[in-house]
Amino acid sequence: MLEKLRSYYNNLSPEARLLLTISIICIAGFFMYRIGVAIGIALKGNL
Question: Which DSSP helix (H) or strand (E) runs through 15?
């Protein structure tokens, strides 16, 4: 599965590869932010 994804990624053009990387970073950052907010609310509620 991972090998298939890696070969697909390597076959992309540099522009497409950059866009894909940026979008993955943005999605990961969004989830990190949401998790951080949830933890912050949980901690604030327990104080």
Answer: helix 14-46
Phi/psi at 12 (nearest 5 deg)?
A: -70, 155
SS3 content of the chain, % helix, strand, coil (to 5): 90, 0, 10
The answer to pTM > 0.85 is no
User: What is the domain partition of the chain in residue ranges?
Assistant: 14-46
Query: What gap in Å lies between CA 47 and CA 40, rounded to an integer?
Result: 11
pLDDT in tens, the chain (47 residues): 789 988 988 888 999 999 999 999 999 999 999 999 999 999 988 76
